[in-house]
């Protein structure tokens, strides 16, 4: 509802704002005058996601971004905090203020203890109707995505899910929400031109967390909501923590060490495991090694396996066929270790090492262990990363 | 040189995870096979020569042409089935 797809371009060929985009915009954009009764909507809100009194970091990422957007729009940034006790809410409120919120809307009610769609949706919708924010941002987590969709439906406004970039079109004061689509092969920028608030959920980890200023002050608005526990259909019986299964952490790990057929023996995965543990990461692999039974199927990375987006991906003995590439190309940095200088992985790796992994990986492990044991703060710029081969 | 994987990527597949439709009956026989003609003739490169004279088979890219079954004359060592309905290669504008 109320959405218009503005421009969608092939990834990697996005126009710079200065040149092509302006042209695309003016030629394709429809001029829609905002409904006058929606024009009074002002301010940027961030829903602070919390579970058991601990806020999700994506909330702070969003506050940082909201701060920037608010400067462009010349409005205030407000945080919305729900919780079951004043004490827990106050703690998160103080954090929200330190991360850049000017205002905090609090709703405290025992019914808001665990997340449930009904009471959270009602409270947020009521707040929005009362205070009329221009933009409402949430994290693209399981919790907030559920909340955002039901809130947007009730408010009859537009929602862009899982955004990776948020900016403002100065001319129309509209939020430009950019998100990957078709499995990341396209980036589309979506605007909600004629409905308010403009809603978006942002993918955790893509926006930087701002520096906190402890003790920063702001306005706190406490709202009392009439929540009738009897009318809430969902009841939380118990909370079962997810069983600890590291393979599932593969998609969210910051460092992934991947192994391919070049490892030659299943036993060599122990080396990768050791390296991954030192870096606080996870181990993955290609289709052939999974098929050969060297690795569990849940650790397969690629077209028919998992798509990962770690900060660092270390590809060991992986030729880099396109079926594997599609699963890793969103990694921040790709380090390839392969004995074949003609392996296709070197076409898209950021760092390529031609050599025998049996020499390189143990050397890397030695260096990392040495750093850990000396516990001195060594930064790459202070001291070059030295690897001594045997 | 374009790798066969690059071309296979243009195809549409629905891979039947964990249920390969082609199996090698006896891996020992492949080690003894001198020419390993399957590794040469498979148009999708499903059969690869391993380092230790073994043959590895990954059926994900299989085009279901049936060549491998026919050419393994000497040993008849390939158990060849079509994938289940809805799986395997899904030719678009074939």
From TrEMBL, chain B:
<dbReference type="GO" id="GO:0051536">
    <property type="term" value="F:iron-sulfur cluster binding"/>
</dbReference>
<keyword id="KW-0535">Nitrogen fixation</keyword>
<comment type="similarity">
    <text>To ferredoxins from P.putida and C.tartarivorum, ferredoxin I from A.vinelandii, ferredoxin II from D.desulfuricans.</text>
</comment>
<keyword id="KW-0249">Electron transport</keyword>
<comment type="function">
    <text>Could be a 3Fe-4S cluster-containing protein.</text>
</comment>
<feature type="domain" description="4Fe-4S ferredoxin-type">
    <location>
        <begin position="20"/>
        <end position="52"/>
    </location>
</feature>
<dbReference type="InterPro" id="IPR017896">
    <property type="entry name" value="4Fe4S_Fe-S-bd"/>
</dbReference>
<dbReference type="GO" id="GO:0005506">
    <property type="term" value="F:iron ion binding"/>
</dbReference>
<protein>
    <recommendedName>
        <fullName>Ferredoxin-like protein</fullName>
    </recommendedName>
</protein>
<keyword id="KW-0813">Transport</keyword>
<keyword id="KW-0408">Iron</keyword>
<dbReference type="Pfam" id="PF05187">
    <property type="entry name" value="Fer4_ETF_QO"/>
</dbReference>
<keyword id="KW-0479">Metal-binding</keyword>
<dbReference type="InterPro" id="IPR012206">
    <property type="entry name" value="Fd_FixX"/>
</dbReference>
<dbReference type="InterPro" id="IPR007859">
    <property type="entry name" value="ETF-QO/FixX_C"/>
</dbReference>
<keyword id="KW-0411">Iron-sulfur</keyword>
